[in-house]
Amino acid sequence: MSHDATNWAIKQRGLKPTTKIVLWHLCDRFNPDYGCFPSQDRLAHDCEISRSTLNDHLGQLEAVGLLRRVSRIDPVTKRQLPTRYILGFEPGFTPAKPTPCPESGHGHDAARKCSDAALDLAINAPAGALPCPESGHGSGARAVSDFCPEPCPENGQSRVRNPDTNLVREPLSKPVKEEEGAQAREAEFDRFFAELLGALGLDPAALPGWWQGWPARLHVRRWIDVLGLTEDRVIAVATASRRDHPEPPDGPKALDRSMARAAQREARAKAPAGAGAQHPDAQRRRKRDPSPRPSGDELAAFYAELVNSDRYLPANTISNTLRDAMLSRGLVTPERLRMRGVR
Question: Where is the composition biased (Basic and acidic residues) (predicted)?
Fold first, then answer.
């Protein structure tokens, strides 16, 4: 892991969220001494996407000049090794410049080093033959795929499925509407986030590091989703905080205490009248006669639902006893616990 590499990834602008996550995980796997060459299975697992989707985003990163992929083949077995990813900040980096073949219009110049005879040999090679060490065509190119071992040299069939190929066409009205709704919500949040930065006196063109990227936006979303504050209330609290402090906060975490106090005040204001002025005897009777505590099954089911959801899970919420109770009842999986930060 390299902090310089991940910081470089966070500073890149104009990328889609998933594309930026792929770039961040690539940089997280970067070693200053040896470079970056994680397998596609590892990258897809880290990014929680399929390999075909991963290849799409890698192609986008290569197209905008943020990385260059270098295929490697074992000189002994002729099997394909994990791709070497050269990142944009590495010394001597030059972005890939694909040039289509003048005959068929497919591929790069580097992929056309094999002669026509070598390509014919790769296509017509008998089963068990080794692939061409330069182009990777032939029956031995099945090192990382379950697809046909003889990709066509004309269309350069990928070793993974094409995510745009949908053999069963279904109505797209609902997914399209959901995507449009998600885009509208994202645009509305962008407007709100820009208004928040203005209330805090921050320049969007020169934001501090802790205000950049999706981590800052996710932190701000928690004030709304977890604390229950409205966007107008968040802006009001931020404006009041800015009046009390001459310098803007260096990150959203600095406003957590102010947002929590505002949420508590709103909760007390919404409480029924007289709820906080009970007689001392009534309070003592309530302490002597507590309501029945939830059973172990109820506690395990409640926290399992929280772990299996995408809601915010504070650190140290799940104790070892509660973790073992959920696992013994089959309510969660060890993989999901690790993904949510529960050890």
Answer: 241-269
The pLDDT assigned to 48 comes to 92
The enclosing H or E element of 215 equals helix 213-225
Number of neighbours of residue 150 by Cβ within 10 angstroms: 19
Distance CA 235, CA 194 (A): 11
Q: Which residues contact 340 (CB under 8 A, 6 or more apart)?
A: 307, 313
Q: Compute the CA torsion angle 248, 252, 253, 256 (nearest 10 deg).
A: 90
**Can you tell me whether residue 36 is helix, strand or coil?**
strand
Domain boundaries defined on the chain? 3-97, 100-163, 173-271, 296-339
Which helix (H) or strand (E) segment holds residue 71: the answer is: strand 67-73
β-partners of residue 69 are: 85
Report residue 228: phi and psi, to 5°.
80, 20
What is the rounded distance in angstroms from the CA atom of residue 41 to the CA atom of residue 144?
Answer: 9
Q: How far is CA 205 from CA 6, 7, 67, in A?
A: 20, 17, 25
Mean pLDDT for the stretch of residues 168-185 = 62
Q: Give how far Cα 139 sits from Cα of 78, 101, 210, 318, Å.
A: 11, 23, 50, 51
For residues 38 and 26, the answer to whether their CB atoms sit within 8 Å is yes
> If pLDDT is split at 50, 70 and 90, which confidence band does 282 have?
low
Give how far the C-alpha of residue 186 lies from the chain's centroid of Cα atoms, to the nearest Å: 16
The helix/strand/coil state of 31 is strand
**SS3 annotation, 217-244:** HHHHHHHHHCCCCCHHHHHHHHHHHHHH
C-alpha distances (whole Å) from 339 to each of 40, 307, 308 are 19, 9, 10
Q: Token pair 């002025």 is at which residue? A: 277
Amino acid sitting at position 81: L
Q: What is the pTM of this model?
A: 0.34
> 52 and 162 in contact (C-beta within 8 Å)?
yes
Domain at 3-97, CATH class: mainly alpha
Q: What angle do CA 150, 96, 112 make, to 5 degrees?
A: 40
Q: Which two tokens stand for residue 105?
A: 């219009």
Give the Cβ contact number of residue 73 at 10 Å.
Answer: 20
